[in-house]
Design goal:
The protein has 283 residues and is of the alpha/beta class. It has 2 domains: 126 residues, Spore Coat Polysaccharide Biosynthesis Protein SpsA, Chain A (Alpha-Beta Complex), CATH 3.90.550; 110 residues, Hexapeptide repeat proteins (UDP N-Acetylglucosamine Acyltransferase, domain 1, 3 Solenoid), CATH 2.160.10.10. The protein has 5 helices and 23 strands. The chain has a 6-stranded mixed β-sheet. The radius of gyration is 23 Å and the shape is elongated. It starts with a helix and ends with a strand.
Amino acid sequence: YFMDIRQMIDFHLKKGADVTVATIPFPIAECRRFGVVAVKEDWQVLEFQEKVPNPKPIPGNPQEGLVSMGNYIFNTEVLLEELEIDAADLNSSHDFGKDILPRICNTRLVFAYDFRQNKVPGIEGQNVYWRDVGTIAAYYEANIDLKNPLPKLNLYNPQWPVRSVKYHDPPAKVVIDAQGRIGHLENSLIAGGSIVSGGWVRDSIIGRNVFVSSGAVVEDSIIIGNVIIEEGAQVRRAIIDEGNVIGQGEQIGYDLNKDAERFYLDPDLEIVVVRKKIENRTL
């Protein structure tokens, strides 16, 4: 998501709140998958409901509930006091959404901030894109959408650039291999330092310093970074963690029963996840 946090701070100060929680309305049937905030008419928070089957709707709008986005503004003294109380509670799991915020709704002035009201330069209409990537399926779908011609989250907005970490990697490149086979990159994102040498990449996200060898095929996949896809290997609908080497001629994503014996298979989207390997151990 994109947010101008200054606008949420202004809301917090205007309300004289102790705590402000960023929220976004969701269809009430979908709210059971998230933490939901029950509010008064003025959006003062009454209760936190963590993944309950029948969450409370927004006052005056029975079709939607308020999902917590996991972003909070605390007054400093309030935060310090509540952290000390929580630290002393042996029954607490020490989580803001599960422990601290549900406990303080009746003792502190907590308000919900409507994320849709946040205006970001370059975004027309209401700002409504937010994704919880806490599951493999959600992570895959949110990332794979970025390679689309018109993604829901536009990383190419010059009025609101993403100021992420900068690496001193060389430019990515797509080249002809030693046998004269042309590398192909189609409808994909490719990060710095990565090379497609006579391989074929389609509808995928390629991270930093990935090498796709001659005759290799990568489709509908996320390659995290520092990965080698050796000659003739085929990867389809997979997430490959960093540091892996996909061996010559190996296939991933073509025989799910076989893949499930070696890798993690996500039950929701049937995405194959190849985890990071360190010193002959898989994490």
